[in-house]
Specification:
Length: 268
């Protein structure tokens, strides 16, 4: 293999999937000790490796600029395309700077079911569409199991931009996106929400329990402003199910509850 490609492959195997970090880091200012290594007469390779082991932690991420009140005042937005345009103009979430695409959402604007995940991954970031990577393929199969497909369901995430390296989003990043997601839910007006994974369930339901306690239960998503609450079912995230296939059994039960509720029944 071409040595450059081999080096890149080596980085990928190590888990490196970002060419840049969320914030710049001046490595010339890093506290390295090349002189002591050079004085000790160590070979150059050693000099290149030693500082890495002692590299200081990256500097704290700068806070995102405060969101513009105009952009966050969304009650004058009455359709999804205008909401998307507002989001594209919004700089209140630092993740936007490192993402390739804004992943706004996909599906019919009048969907009866809205699925909310955590954040775009690598493939979603590349294509600007939610749940199109490995988790998305499993989500498609889960929907098919209850006789549904993407053409009938609106899919979005609690975050519109991929956190670098798929790191856990900060509460500030989640809060910066939340007004847009709330308005998106209002505009779609689904009959039910399916919250996949702990992040989506905790954010949308404002609860602190883990997903093990929340999954398989119906909650009321508070729409606010006098609007009726929306029934919201929490379940496992497909990425978790890919890692823990034994839990698919529980997820299947959750999906059956959802199917009954969407058919007009009252599955508890
Ligand atoms: N995981 C999520 O939570 N959302 C996506 O869009 C992709 C993976």
């Amino acid at each position: 293999m071409n040595p450059w490609l081999a080096t890149l492959q080596w980085y990928i195997d190590l888990g490196v999937d970002e060419a840049i970090a969320a914030t710049p880091w001046n490595r010339f200012e890093a506290a390295v000790a090349p002189t002591s290594v050079a004085e000790a007469g160590q070979p150059r390779l050693q000099a290149a490796v030693t500082p890495l082991a002692k590299a200081p932690p990256p500097p704290p991420r700068p806070a995102a600029p405060p969101p513009s009140p105009d952009l966050l005042h969304l009650s004058d937005v009455h359709d999804l395309e205008t909401l998307r345009a507002r989001l594209e103009a919004y700089d209140g979430c630092a993740l936007k700077a490192t993402a390739t695409n804004t992943v706004f959402g996909s599906g019919p604007a009048d969907a009866r079911l809205m699925i909310i995940g955590e954040a775009p991954g690598e493939e979603e970031d590349r294509r600007g569409i939610p749940f199109v990577g490995p988790s998305g393929h499993l989500l498609d199969r889960m929907l098919a199991a209850i006789g549904m497909d993407r053409e009938q369901v609106y899919i979005a995430n609690t975050l519109y931009w991929r956190p670098p390296g798929n790191r856990t989003p900060t509460p500030a990043e989640t809060q910066a996106c939340l007004p847009f997601l709330k308005r998106q839910i209002e505009l779609i007006g689904p009959k039910a929400l399916l919250l996949v994974g702990a992040a989506a369930a905790k954010t949308m339901l404002q609860r602190s329990e883990g997903i093990m306690r929340m999954r398989g239960r119906w909650f009321d998503y508070a729409s606010g402003d006098g609007r009726p609450d929306i029934p919201a079912l929490a379940t496992f995230h497909p990425a978790y199910l890919l890692r823990s296939p034994a839990q698919k059994r529980e997820a299947w039960r959750d999906l059956q509850m959802l199917q009954i509720r969407l058919a007009g029944g009252k599955a508890e």
